[in-house]
Design brief:
With 188 residues, the chain is of the alpha/beta class. Helix content is 45%, strand content 16%. Bound molecules: uracil. Uracil binds next to loops.
Length: 188
């Protein structure tokens, strides 16, 4: 039932979306995973592999994310994974303010439907979408509770983006360490 509602939600928001990225992207990349999960991971925007497959985090950073999930005894089927922007920006450039704004209602509708205990932001775009005045270098590995208009009180946990950490030894270590905190946060 919940999964069907989610499928309908994606179809509706894809149809009404006015983002200019629709012209260059192959397709929308819908959020994917368990619609009843307590945890939502939110990335930035689809890359090339995601644009082709229509699924979030299936490229190199997705494989790294899978490894980290396994390290805390979770799998993709246990969590829900989505992006703030649902269409691939050309050449994987950073999404613009307008492009993020064009997908905001869609992302927030996903959150309203799933009502997760924990929203895990991957990278600065997802973090600053909800909590604008913080720097990821200062707040990664920390959790926040914030009242978000239309969503209510929501707990967030900030992580570096797996793509940024993939080829950077120090950041990778930090991300692996921060990731391990998820288990404890879920028990709260
Ligand atoms: N990076 C993201 O932020 N999202 C994806 O889906 C893939 C890579």
């Amino acid at each position: 039932m919940q999964q069907e509602k989610l499928a309908a939600l994606h179809k509706k928001f894809d149809q009404i979306n006015t983002s200019g990225l629709k012209k260059t992207a192959t397709q929308a990349v819908f959020g994917h995973g368990n619609a009843l999960s307590d945890i939502i991971f939110i990335g930035e925007a689809p890359g090339k592999s995601e644009d082709i497959s229509g699924k979030p985090f299936v490229g190199a950073s997705g494989k790294f994310l899978d490894e980290m999930l396994t390290s805390i005894k979770l799998s993709r089927e246990d969590v829900y994974i989505t992006n703030i922007v649902k269409y691939r920006p050309p050449e994987n450039r950073d999404p613009s303010k307008d492009e993020i704004a064009a997908c905001k209602a869609w992302l927030h509708a996903e959150l309203q439907l799933i009502q997760p205990k924990l929203v895990i932001t991957l990278g600065r775009y997802a973090l600053n979408h909800f909590i604008p005045d913080v720097k990821i270098g200062e707040v990664h590995g920390k959790s926040f509770t914030k009242n978000i208009p239309g969503l209510g009180e929501q707990t967030f946990f900030a992580l570096y983006h797996p793509a940024a950490a993939l080829y950077n030894g120090n950041m990778r270590e930090t991300l692996l360490k921060d990731f391990k905190k998820i288990t404890r946060l879920l028990k709260k």
